[in-house]
Design goal:
heterodimer; A: alpha/beta; Alpha-Beta Plaits; six-stranded mixed sheet; four-stranded antiparallel sheet; 38% helix; B: mainly alpha; 2 strands
């Protein structure tokens, strides 16, 4: 597999230089305020993988994508897509991009809109005629091609946004928060679509703050926090090693089994028809299961609860926050 | 180039669906009708006043279209993030900006032509319903030579017929380019073409300003460029006169006057001289118009220069 996206030491600091009317007043500001959106970031995305760029709001996800799309210029560092520098039109012809909450020309119908964008790709008329109805069908807008975009619901807008990013049958698809504002059903559809893109051999690079969705489909993820990469790797490696707890569910307990369980368990919960014992160590859980299997109770389930991406995420960010606070205190003391 | 064309056509479509455009067109009709009413108030200057105001209206309304519709359309794409999906297509930034500009210019040109047709119709209508014609149209003569009024219905019919005739003649004058042969609309087509050249500069400024500023400020600056452009020669002469009066020695000028001198001279040099496109007086007095080709070249070169600067700024910009 070849690396299709290489990001090397990419950083972005926004300086406010602004001339304009704001709140009815003429304002002129020159470089007196700056905000670091992205600290030097290194990333490599392999061909054919689904890569998730995750992080809370303001982590630098959108900034990264904007730089990759040539909408913003990096303060330092750089990136290459398919081996070519950013902004290269031959690369742009082979990628698709769906921004978050973009607004399209709402006086155009779905078909007209895609037809216009097809022209921007330089697609000949016959190709557009054939490709657009297929695409509309694919994103579930087959019925709405002749309706103006202003009548589209939020979900439909999102779909037409997806459709425009797939017009050129791209090799890499960049999706910025593709699931934001969608209902659970719509989110599942987007997930399925992303998986089908991967199956068709495309690379998908998407950003999200909805971790459950990312967890279900990503091959690898990077987690950003305040413009800094705090984790990177295959999801399986990030989470599998960390079984959070072992949960044993049983019922109809006899004799002192209940007492044993209560003594060893980290937590013990009594439900109307069953007991739940949570263990930190695998041996303790195994011991209880063996006792149960010895015929002293009915085993309902035995689960090794893995950490979810969300828990991992929150833990990593909290660790980071603590480090920062400690550093700040130390700095303050000095 | 196909991409620039696609953007230009889409911009035109977008402008045509803009309500502001129709409000402005409606205003142009109002101004021309108002000019007609005003012209009837003067005894011997009727035609001069009407022509003056009519050509002025076409000019001002095209300026307003360039400013309010033009700047809005560029800003909308930036503000609503539509630009994200356009720039990420295999399109260079200059192609986007050029496409927008040409689309706006097409919009303005079509509107100038429509307004010129309306104005030509107004001129014709005025001719058709002038006192002499009116009397001929609504009366007949009986056998004994007495004049008979044909009645209110004939009166109304005469006005309606004149209106239709005026519209047909007006459009014909402009579209057949037979402008020089017909005294009544003489030179109108030429001045409208010059207005389009003038607007190509103004629109370029509008695009330039909106490539880095907010719409309100862009509109303000664009109008300022227009005003200075129209006063360009006067401004330069004003500075020179001040300099002459000081005996051609800067030291004789007070601080304030020195600032005024440099400001006036600087503004006159930087801003385009739009006065070269203004033949309103010729139209009003029904004089011949001859446009030096160098003026057209000046206008187009100036617009190109402004667009190059706009592209240079646009190329470096982060889209919020």
């Amino acid at each position: 597999m070849a690396a299709v996206i290489e990001i090397n030491g990419l950083s972005k600091t926004y300086v406010q230089d602004f001339i304009g009317v704001e709140h009815g007043r003429l304002k002129i500001r020159f470089k007196n305020r700056s905000r670091t959106a992205l600290r030097p970031l290194d990333l490599t995305v392999q061909e054919g993988e689904i890569f998730g760029l995750l992080g809370p709001n303001g982590a630098g996800k959108t900034t990264t994508i904007k730089i990759l799309m040539g909408l913003h210029f990096p303060t330092s560092g750089g990136a290459r897509i398919m081996g070519k520098p950013l902004g290269d039109n031959s690369v742009k012809a082979k990628i698709g991009f769906m921004p978050e909450n973009a607004h399209f020309y709402d006086y155009l119908t779905g078909f007209e809109f895609l037809d216009y964008y097809g022209q921007l790709y330089g697609m000949p008329k016959e190709v557009r005629r054939k490709r657009i109805p297929e695409l509309l069908e694919k994103v579930g807008l087959g019925h709405a091609g002749e309706l103006p975009l202003r009548g589209y619901s939020k979900g439909m807008q999102q779909r037409v946004g997806l459709a425009q990013s797939l017009l050129n049958d791209p090799k890499i698809v960049f999706l910025d928060e593709p699931q934001s504002g969608l209902d659970p059903f719509g989110r599942k559809e987007v997930r399925d679509l992303i998986l089908s893109l991967r199956d068709a051999g495309k690379t998908v690079f998407f950003s999200s703050h909805i971790l459950q969705d990312a967890e279900l489909i990503c091959d690898r993820v990077a987690i950003l926090h305040k413009g800094q990469r705090i984790a990177l790797g295959p999801l399986s490696e990030m989470l599998s090693a960390k079984v959070k707890e072992y949960e044993v569910a049983f019922s109809d307990a006899e004799g002192n089994l209940l007492e044993h369980a209560q003594q060893k368990a980290k937590r013990f919960v009594q439900r109307p028809n069953e007991y739940l014992a949570m263990f930190e160590r695998e041996e303790d859980a195994r011991a209880l299961v063996q006792e149960i299997l010895g015929g002293r109770a009915k085993l309902n389930s035995f689960i090794a609860r893995k950490e979810t991406l969300e828990e991992y995420f929150i833990r990593e960010i909290e660790t980071k926050q603590r480090e920062e606070n400690a550093a700040a205190v130390a700095g303050g003391a000095a | 180039m196909i991409r620039v064309y696609a953007i230009a056509i889409n911009t035109f479509k977008e402008a045509v669906r803009n309500r502001v455009l129709y409000v402005l067109l409606f205003f142009s009709v109002l101004i021309m009708l108002g000019a007609w009413v005003a012209s009837t108030l003067s005894i011997d200057q009727e035609s001069v006043i009407l022509r003056n105001l009519g050509v002025g209206a076409i000019n001002i309304i095209s300026l307003l279209i360039a400013v309010f519709v033009g700047i809005g359309l560029v800003y909308n794409d930036l503000d609503k993030k539509t630009i994200y999906t356009i720039i990420s297509k295999p399109i260079s930034r200059w192609q986007f900006l050029l496409g927008k500009y040409l689309g706006l210019l097409l919009t303005i040109s079509v509107n100038v032509l429509v307004m010129t047709c309306i104005f030509a119709a107004v001129l014709n209508f005025r001719e058709f319903v002038s006192d002499d014609n009116l009397i001929k149209g609504i009366t007949t003569t009986d056998a004994s030579g007495g004049v008979i009024y044909k009645g209110i219905f004939a009166h109304v019919l005469y006005y309606v017929a004149s209106l239709f005739k005026a519209i047909i003649f007006g459009v014909w004058h402009i579209l057949s380019l037979g402008y020089d042969g017909v005294a009544i609309t003489k030179g109108l087509f030429t001045t409208s073409m010059l207005t389009i050249v003038e607007m190509s500069i103004i629109t370029a400024f509008g695009v330039l300003f909106s490539s880095f500023s907010t719409p309100i400020l862009s509109a303000f600056l664009t109008v300022i460029v227009f005003v200075i452009g129209r006063l360009d020669v006067s401004l330069y002469l004003f500075a020179q006169q001040m300099f002459e009066q000081a005996g051609r020695d800067m030291n004789n000028l007070s601080g304030g006057k020195q600032v005024a001198y440099y400001f006036a001279t600087g503004a006159a040099y930087i801003c385009p001289n739009l006065e070269v496109f203004n033949y309103r007086k010729n139209i009003a007095e029904m004089m011949d118009i001859s446009v030096p080709p160098i003026d057209i070249a000046y206008g187009l070169l100036y617009a190109t220069f402004v667009m190059v600067v706009a592209v240079m700024i646009f190329n470096r910009r982060n889209f919020k």
